[in-house]
Specification:
Belongs to the PrpD family. 51% of the residues lie in helices and 8% in strands. It has 448 residues and is α+β, with helices and mostly antiparallel strands.
Length: 448
Amino acid sequence: MDDTAITDILARQVAASTFDGLPPEIRHEVKRSILNFFGTAISGSDAPALAVFLSTLPHSPTVGPATIIGRSLRSDVLAASFLNAASANVADFDDTHVPTVIHPTAPIAPPLFALAEQRQMSGAEFILAFVLGVEVACRIGNAISPHHYRKGWHITATCGVIGAAAAASVAMRLDHIQTRHALAIAATQASGLVECLGTGAKSVCIGNASRGGLWSAMLAQAGLDGPYRALEGDNGYLAVLGNGAQGQSIVSGWGNNWQLAQNAYKPYPTGVVVNPVIDACLELYRRHGTKPRDIGLVTVHGNPLLLLRADRPEPRSASDAQLSAQHAAAIGLSFGEMPLWLFSEAGLRDQDIAALRRKVRLHADPNLDVEAARVVIKTVSGTEYEQVTTAARGGTANPLSDGELEEKFQHLTQDRLSKEAKRTMVKHIWEMEELDDIAGLLALATPT
C-alpha cells in the first residue's frame, strides 16, 4: 500500500471498521446526537427557508420513498436528505464538533435515514455508519483548521459532504474501492461560503452537503469513478481548500480518540461561540436584575473567533440575529432566559432589545478560550458589574446531561408531536443498538 495515498487509506479504514470496535461511550454519544437532531429538525421544519425549498423540490403527502421530518410529506431520497439536513441546522441549534466548529449531524444523519427507508437498517448498522461519517468529516476538518474557515469556507458543508459520503458508503456496504470513489466524488462537490451565514443561503450549504454525500455514494455504487488522490493530490482537496495541509493526520491513529467524543450540544439557538456570552449575561441578570433602561454600556471580552463570527450589531434578519452576540446579550440581560421566539423576526423587531443591542461592544482577547467570555455592565449611574464564564454550558467542559438533552427535545417538539410519540421516540433512541429497523423513528417524527 502506498502510505502517501491518503484517500485510499481512508477508504480502507472506513470499509474495514466494525461496530464491535466502537467503545460504549461513543455508541452512547450517537444517541445523544440523534436525540438532538430530531429535536432541531422537527422544530426547524417549519422555518421560512424550508417553505421556499419545498416550493422548488419534489414532495407529496403519499408518494416518495423517504420521509420529510416534521411534515406529513414524502420525497425522493436526495431531496429528503437536503430538506432534513436544512431543517436540522436552520436555527443554529444543532450540535458542534468544538475543535473545528463543524455541525456534523445535520449533513450526515439524513442520508442514513433516507437509506433506512429503502432497506432495513438496524440500530447497530446506523451507529457504525454515523460514527464513521463524523470521524471522516471531523478528521478532515482538523487537518485544514483553522485556515479553511478563516479563509471563508463553510466547514460544515465542505467537510460534511465527505462525511456524508463515508456514512452512506458504510450503510450501502460499499467495498473500499467504491468507498474511495465516493469520497473522491464528494470532495469535488465540497462548497459553501461563510459569507452565507445569517442568510437563508446558509441552509443551501448544509442541504447540498447532505444530498451530495448520499449522491456520491450512489454514483460510486453505480460505477462512477473519481481521482485516486482526491484529497492529497497536487490539485486535490487539501491543496485547493486546505492551504496545502498535510493529510497524514487524517488517517493516523484511526480508531483512537474518536471525534464524536468532542461533540457538544447547544443550550441556546445561536452560534456556539456566543454560548459563554449568554451564560455570563444570564448570570448577571440573576445576580443583579439590572433593568435594560439602567444599562449604559455592555462590554464583552471573548476569543477572537467570537468577533470573527458573531460581531453583528445590527442583524438584518432572523438568521443574522441567530449569530449576533449583541442580540444574544441583549436578550439575556433583558429576560434572564433565551426563548426561541426572540431569535425570530418578532424578536428582531423588538425595540427594547434593539436599544440594548446598540450598547453592546465586543473586544477580542486571545487569552480567552472559545468557551470562555467576560462581560462587564456599566450602569447609567456608573456602577459596574462583571461576570466571567470559563466553561460555557453545553461545551465539552460543561456538557448538557442526557436529561437536559431530553428537556431540549421536549421543548423543541412540544407543539409538533404527541406525548406518546415523543415518549416512544426518546425510548427507542436510548435503546438504538437494540433496534432491528431504525426507520421506525421516522414514522414517529411526523406531526400529529
